[in-house]
Amino acid sequence: MDIRRRNNITVTGRTDGPVLLLAHGFGCDQNMWRLVVPALAEDYRLVLFDYVGSGHADASAWDERRYSSLEGYAQDVLEVCEELDLRDVTFVGHSVSAMVG
To answer: In the 8-state DSSP scheme, what is residue 18?
Structure first.
């Protein structure tokens, strides 16, 4: 599975900046960060993504068993970090994503 496609990953901001991983809550997608991204991008490398079942994530990746608990979503976050070889990440979770984090 192509993680970048599955989760519609967007990377923006300073390439040499500290990494902020912005995770949206349920019922929305990475677009919810659009008003803060310009300000944060000046100082940070920003990683945004859509959870499977949201936004432009790959709908064919939906698995009822995997996503029946928050652990499946947490696994997606870990796989995004692994795919991008992220280290020393600050996770910013909106709503239920605070629990996923």
So the answer is: P
